[in-house]
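quick q for whoever's on today - can somebody do inverse folding on this one?? i tried earlier but teh output was garbage lol. tokens:
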């Protein structure tokens, strides 16, 4: 197993730790930072999420730079991304930090695009990620981190930047999903 795949597996291994920290009612106290009360468990989970998200960039960097792209990596990398982001968004709903309807729309888009990729793969077609898809991912990661950090460090501004970034992530997620289907609709047409 090469280094990029090991990095991807480390991301997958961080997911259960992230889930446990946010799901089990640990009482590690809170930090009062300006107008924000930040539970330490949310801060620790946010750091774990951020580190796991960085591994996505790192494994891709190594795979491209050293020409270590493998079928296992093509399978594991998007799977790890979907698992991490889906787990985070679902836990944010449980913690009442994100509206369920937004999370449902975001996760639905991810399932739809994954389904399209599976259909394409069955036809021997590889559908590459678009630049809009990459921007979408960055916006999702940013919104999750800001929500976990309870809008810190932007709480001083008095604006819910975390919620604003979540709505931006929703728009970009929807836009990239529509774009993906429009560009690749030929995959869905029967050849018979």
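ok took a stab at it. sequence:
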């Amino acid at each position: 197993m090469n280094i990029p795949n090991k990095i991807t597996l480390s991301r997958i291994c961080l997911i259960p730790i992230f889930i446990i920290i946010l799901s089990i009612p640990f009482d590690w106290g809170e930090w009062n930072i300006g107008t924000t009360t930040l539970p330490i468990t949310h801060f620790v989970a946010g750091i774990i999420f951020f580190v796991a998200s960085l591994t996505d960039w790192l494994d891709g960097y190594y795979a491209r730079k050293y020409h270590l792209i493998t079928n296992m990596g093509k399978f594991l990398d998007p799977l790890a991304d979907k698992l991490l982001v889906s787990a985070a968004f679902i836990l944010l709903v449980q913690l009442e930090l994100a509206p369920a309807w937004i999370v449902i729309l975001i996760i639905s888009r991810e399932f739809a695009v994954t389904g399209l990729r599976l259909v394409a793969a069955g036809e021997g077609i590889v559908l590459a990620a678009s630049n809009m898809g990459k921007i979408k991912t960055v916006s999702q990661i940013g919104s999750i981190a800001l929500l976990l950090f309870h809008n810190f460090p932007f709480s001083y501004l008095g604006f819910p930047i975390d919620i604003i970034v979540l709505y931006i992530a929703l728009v970009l997620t929807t836009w990239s999903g529509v774009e993906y289907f429009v560009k690749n609709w030929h995959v869905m047409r029967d050849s018979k």
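fwiw The beta strands are 30-33, 36-39. also Residues 3-187 form a domain with the Four Helix Bundle (Hemerythrin (Met), subunit A) fold (CATH 1.20.120.1760). so keep that in mind when u check it
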